[in-house]
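This section describes the prediction task in plain terms. A model, or a person checking by hand, is given the sequence of a single protein chain and must write out its three-dimensional structure as a string of tokens. No templates, partner chains or ligands are provided. The sample shown here is typical of the held-out split.
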Amino acid sequence: MEVNKCRECGKELTHDEIGLYRRLVNRGAKDFLCIECLAAYFRISVDVLRKRIQTFKADGCTLFF
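The expected answer:
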């Protein structure tokens, strides 16, 4: 099994972080940012992104399971 790491900081990524990146940036992405680096990229808080993950899950988005 391939382990995905953040392209900025090298942190091992969770499935939710990969799904969030694909949902917000590029569905066909092959490299990703962790939630902290993605928050910095968008200049928003990590809490906002965590709430978005929960919203996407509640909506049944297939990128999150």
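For orientation: DSSP finds three helices and no strands in the chain.
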